[in-house]
Amino acid sequence: MTTALIGQPISRVDGRRKVTGAATYVAEFQAPGLVHGAIVRSTVANGRIASIDSSAAQQAPGVIAVLTHQNAPKLAYRAHKGAPDPGIGERLHVLQADRVSHQGQPVALVIAEGLEQAVHAAMLVRVTYAPEAAITDIARAEPVPLTPPSETRRGDPDGALAAAEVKLGQTYVIPRENHNPIEMHATIASWDGDSLTLWDKTQWVHNVADEIAAVFGIPARNVRVISPFVGGAFGSALRTWPHVTLAALGARVAGRPVKIMLSRREMYYGTGFRPHTVQRVALGASRDGRLGAILHNGDQETSTYEEFTEALLNATGFLHSCPNVNTRHRLAPMNVHTPTYMRGPGEASGIFAIESAMDELAVALNIDPVELRLRNEPEQDEFRQLPFSSRSTRECYQAAAERFGWSRRNSEPRSMRDGRQLIGWGMATATYGAGRAPASAMARLLPDGTAEVASAASDMGPGTWTSMTQVAAETLGLPIERVRFTLGDTRLPRAPVHGGSITMASVGSAVQAACRKAREDALARGGGTNDVTEAMRRIGQPVEASVDSTPGDESQRFSMHAFGAVFVEVAVDPDLGETRVRRIVGAYGAGRIVNPKLARSQCVGGMIGGIGMALMEHSVVDGRNGRVSNANFAEYAVPVHADAPPVMDVIFVEEHDPHVNPLGVKGVGEIAMVGVAPAITNAIFHATGKRIRELPVTPDKLL
Amino acid sequence: MHPFTLDRPRDLAAALALRAQAGRNDAPAEYIAGGTDMVQLLQEYVRQPERLVSLAGLLDNRIEIGPQGLRLGVAATMAEVAADPAVVEQFPLISEALLNSASPQVRNQATMGGNLLQRTRCPYFRDVGYAACNKRAPGSGCAAIGGENRWHAVLGTSDDCIATNPSDLAVALVALDAAVEIRGAGGSRSLPLVDFHRLPAATPHIETVLEPGEVIAAITVPASSAARRSHYLKVRDRASFEFAVVSAAVALEMDGARIRQARIALGGVGTKPWRVPRVEAALAGASLEPQSLRQAAALAAENAHGRGHNDFKIELMQRAIVRAVEIAGARA
Amino acid sequence: MPGFIPEAAAQAADARPAPLDLVLRVNGTEHRLTLDPRTTLLDALREHLHLTGSKKGCGLGQCGACTVRMDGKGVKSCLSLAALVEGREITTIEGLAQGDQLHPLQAAFIERDAFQCGYCTSGQIMAGVACIAEGHAGSPQEIRDWMSGNLCRCGAYDHIVAAIQDAAGATGPARGG
């Protein structure tokens, strides 16, 4: 019995566990003898530890151990770089030296019986510093080229800009933002001899095992990492942060399982963030709206010990057609901890600049913003000189514009009102790469007609549990309730990092291949039946298939990206400066949609994230010392229910991409975040006539 | 949290005898009621009392309305007061201010007294990673001056402190001439709410007039026809569940199309709930024409002093006054 | 986070406050516990009773993931000291379903896909039940206003509102939990 399941709006298979509180997140696992860890963090951004007095902490009730650089075991810190780690530089080593390179760096660890006891003893550790001058403000930092330098050039951008009939040049600023998943990062570490089990919030269990093995100088097979449910991450759990090492270190010293859960404030120091970026865009065009030149420079903050880079300027080379393009990407090393990828990394920031500039050009030329983009729609990827595997921008503009009612738009700013409110309509293009990485999966058919399918993937929310079950059940030819998919454990076949919208393409392809092989094997041995359930009944023992699935050379032959268009209606109070998004319509060409119900959730979620980015999110770094002033959920504003637009519309345009991967999927998690912020600021311009080039657009910017 | 002894006294006299004191970081004993701010302060080590004295069940929580006006037992929760039909009808400003505060859950937990005594949201006060905060550690300096001060006050500041009072309720109550009844071991006293919070001056660590062993017992609000024609306007970065960037509480007595008397207080801009008598005086007899409202509102900016990031509040608070008066004036 | 505790206070900390014996009523069952006076209701539920359905997202009342019902009202369990809620009737997400029968709002959350990562979900559901019971589910805008104490970083707000509307229609304001 084969049922079409891929493409069906199936409810989450893990839904019942999540709505009853039965889904177990890592901090909730019980380990016998569990004790608690609390981290002492630096209060200077640069310098050396002059003294540490842990005597009061040692004597505090319940304290088992206090570790500092003076007494912590020396760790191996063998070389290890996982895909999310910066290619240049070396991770932060914890409690190995007296050097402090950023605010909130771990300088001591307290292990105590009770949670309250650990937290309090950490406060009793007295640390003094010999501080040194610190740079924590990008305006005072010295941007330098990446290693190797990242500059691209085609044609004669400077000459073309100088000769352009119409030109503009502006600077666009996005402040630091934090992922702020609702679940704070947590790790439970438990040693058994030389073997370590980690229950860790992560988007990649195998990389945690590899890294911690490298840090402790033990074989990776000795480290088991378990992470079945991830309470949001958005990139914050891509890397293995220092507290994971600290939990393992504490557990080794204490001889007991140790749990560390970061506080919300610690989340702003102990995990990464979307870096502060300063981008300069110059556009040159003909009066009829043909782009003649794009110059796009981007500077972003990084730490002093690692070069974090993201694809800030990549889309500039292929998003719009233009013969003369120059991009230059630089980094500003500062006394901060290393930034990391945050939802829509690179594109979310870079496209804010490009799509804002395109809107400014549309205004300068008095051409409709959609029409301007259509006039510059490329036939191929002009940067890589490759055909797109598929590109549905035109269809996205059309579908979203029609649903939105864009044709009724009066291009004049301040031309629409609702009572006191100024109404504005804006739009922007979105894109994100469609990647795929090697992945493995196992499928085991059982004689009772059920199946177990597994891959060490992760599910931070998009629905990996569910979508993989759909792919498996359809491929095996079984009803969905007879397939159990498991993930989040290094004992399962290796999966790639759960990020960059590659999970469906990578793990999904592996699951499909493993299930296909298991089904073929079962039918081959099943005595002529075409019914896999009947075949398994006859075989009477499990049939198992494991497959390593790797991409081919398609990424060398095609430029592969998802594309989309976002249309937004805002209401701005012209006196009080408050902006609220009333409507948002997004259309996406993202290949095959495995589960439209869950994909819609991802897209509306990305829109909410984009509203936060546009209107409120800002990690306010005190330029004097690098502390994050608003390191909490009261002063770091993320959107709440009342900020959600009354109308949120998601359209998936029909797109069949035969090249991108066997499933024909592109992923929607990242692209859903891209383009929202510029669509909002473009709508704010349309509402008010004010162009805001520095996010977030808080009321003070519109007075 | 710093270790503390938790007292759960049987009656108020016993609680008062323990001489706890709210609003001072150097007080060794502190009262706790709803706990919604106190637990935050304890968790973040902003407060480290040796003794915590619970007031649960010891104080009046009745809401009474009579010809004299409104009397709120200090243990009434924000939710109870906001939803009380008589409050909604006769003192809508109070209900609006409460419903614009915090979240439904916190409103179910937090009391009237605790709301008036909640501590500033100044991020430097709340982050013990900063050594300098004159409120938290007297004499240590003010990290907000010269720091990130978009959240901070422009009125009533001193060179030692620019922290705002975060209460929406207090802004509405100050506009309505509310008074507080204070009870101590030696008896009761009453004073206008506007005099309850102290300006920071050189002693920002002393936030209220409460002495050790004193609690607020009740809030009284005089009856007034203005209380019905009112509006609480709150400007913030997101649509809900956030402290005010700027807020304005306005209550009007109208004489036809003209304002007979206006009562106006501001939030988010003052080191305490900020009444603006000069604006009120300028509005007496004025029409609701935007021009006259703007002229009057401009008087709120007298002696306002921005510190850079918060300069915009000086303009925004004037606009908030104008808008709130317009809305209140348009109400039947 | 680090910060200096005055020397005298640090000394005073050596005085170990006596653990408190107390009884918590959770989901209809009385639990006898010996707790540090500093233990919040949320930590008592998660760390001592192993009722981990109530989530910790901030510990400061700023996210709503820890929402439980206390004497029928939605509260943030991280903002209450456990010792001060003795005798109160506490309902957590684990006490919402009737055996295998999900509460209508739980069922609506699954049907509407009103969550992604699931971490804020317990709090959203407990707050949603209170929202319906207290009569604030009359319109999408009213629901948004009354649910704004519960952050969802995955951005499932649109679907949460739909689920609450569904459940409000199914249960009416009189029931709800």
How would you sum up the global shape of chain C? elongated
Relative strand content of chain B = 15-25%
Report the CATH architecture of the largest domain in chain C.
Answer: Roll
Query: Might you state the CATH topology name of the domain at 228-330 in chain B?
Result: Enolase-like, domain 1
Shape of chain B: globular
**Low-pLDDT ranges of chain B:** none
Largest interface, C-beta within 8 A: A-C, 83 and 70 residues
Radius of gyration of chain C (CA) equals 18 Å
**CATH class (first level) name of the domain at 228-330 in chain B:** Alpha Beta
Counting DSSP H or I runs of 4 or more residues, the number of helices of chain C is: 6
- Give, in spatial order, the strands making up the sheet with the most strands of chain B: 4-5-8-6-7
Largest sheet of chain B: 5 strands, antiparallel
Instruction: State the major sheet of chain C.
Output: 5 strands, mixed
Characterization of the model:
The complex is a heterotrimer of chains A (703), B (332) and C (177). Chain A is of the alpha+beta class. Helices cover 25% and strands 25% of the residues of chain A. Chain A contains 16 helices and 26 strands. In chain A, the strands form 6 sheets. Chain A has a 7-stranded mixed β-sheet with strand order 3-6-1-13-10-11-12. Chain A has a 5-stranded mixed β-sheet with strand order 8-17-15-14-9, with helices on both faces. A 5-stranded mixed β-sheet of chain A has the order 18-19-24-25-26, sandwiched between helices. In chain A, helix 8 packs parallel to helix 16 and helix 12 packs across helix 13. Chain B is an alpha+beta fold. Chain B contains 12 helices and 12 strands. The radius of gyration of chain B is 19 Å and the shape is globular. By secondary structure, chain C is α+β, with helices and mostly antiparallel strands. Chain C has 6 helices and 5 strands. In chain C, a hairpin with a 2-residue loop joins strand 1 and strand 2. About 4% of the residues of chain C have low confidence. Chains in contact: A-B, A-C, B-C. The interface between A and C is large, with 83 and 70 residues.
